[in-house]
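Moderator note: this is an archived Q&A kept for reference. The question asked for a predicted structure of one protein chain; the sequence and the answer are reproduced below.
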Amino acid sequence: MDIRAQLSMSFHMDKCIGCHTCSVSCKNVWTTRRGAEYMWWNNVETKPGAGYPVTWEDQDRYRGGWEVSGGSLRLKLLKGPGKIRSLANIFFQPNLPTIDDYYEPFTFDYQHLFNAPAGDDQPTARARSLITGDFMEKIVLGPNWDDDMGGSPLYASNDPNLKGLSDSQKEMLTKFHKLFFFYLPRICNHCLNPACVASCPSGAIYKRGEDGIVLIDQDTCRAWRFCVSACPFKKPYYNWANGKSEKCIFCYPRTETGQANACAHACTGRIRFVGVLLYDADKIEDVAKSSDERLVEAMRDICLDPNDPKVIEGAIKAGITQDWITAAQNSPAYNLFVKWRIATPNHPEFRTVPMNFYIPPLSPILHDSKAGSGGVFDPISDEFFNDVDKMRVPLRYLANMLSAGNEQVIAESLKKQMAVRMYVRQQRVGDVGESKVKSVLSDVGLTAQDCEDIYRLTALGTFQERFVIPETHRETMTTVEPRTMYEKRGTIGFGTKKQHLVSRTW
């Protein structure tokens, strides 16, 4: 067992209001430089929708992530032998997103509003490109361009997650008078099996041993941009001004001192939770090779119980300090993903083993089989959980996005969320009945204390409860060779070994 620590962020999609405060906070802190105008290390997408960059989830087009071939993992980007394929595409990558897939960054000629000569017409501020400096005749795309456009045929109909839905389900999600949309906040997932690390020819990208954050060494980066192509989430970006790749750094200057990430700290909906996971690095390859039906469960299995004495002993031997172990024991990330099983990873079928998790959103009930109910949610119905199948956002759509197509994983999460609401309603209003609540909790595998804890964290959680981030002990770190897993990228692509900081005992 090779125990390591990983900082992880969870998102409660039922609470996200799409205000983009997180995106603006991240933009103001990290990407206000020349060449980074179009970068959104944190972005919030409307779902159903095409996302940013456009249709980033379509790996038939972008060929990001991993695939299992002949019992081995290989990058989708490398159709043939790794080095040969990489060398063939080193100066031209056909799967790279273009600036049109993002948007040409622009500003407005505001000075013209003040400096325009007197005339009969009101002066206007024309759009000016931040790349060329020229005026733009027509703006066709921009940041959050499809914001709240869940029912538009242009954006919603191009959502790759609609795959496998019936015509009636697609109509339900794409027709204006029927639509229901929700928001998907995204940052780099700081994966356990990052495709960006494996694809980098210069070995500039590495995963830190002490907290699992994936970073790009700016001195080593040679802008081959394989990281952009290989990442299925399209979270590395190319800075056209300085010729380097850049990406979300999980605000490590903040987390190293125990502070919350800028996006999480600014979140007005309090939808974000940050904590520590302990995992067994020896299982990474097996998890990444798991079948689609088993992927989420395999990811839960790789996360270790921080209260297990054997895990604690192994973590201490691995150089993980006691305050990190304590943080893992109080981690909202562990509780939401492993203990309560209500959070799920985003597109685990990309096989990068992402380490950020999402609580899928509940949505309105389309109708109720009970006569005279008028479609109103009935908490004392004998068919309480059948309403999950009647929700306006189909299970298949959520499963395509959050569980590699496994609808049971999504149904379990939604049922538990409904059960918690039912429990709290009984505590506050008392119109459900104790026997009914006990029956429902038994069906979903929750205790009354679980409901109290889930409600406390997701609805009333304090700053300290939502962000359990231990300080990094830089005094115990040293520069050593990386672990075997990351040396293997030289056989997958043609990267070189990269030294990085890990604990002395690793």
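Archived answer notes: The longest helix spans residues 407-428.
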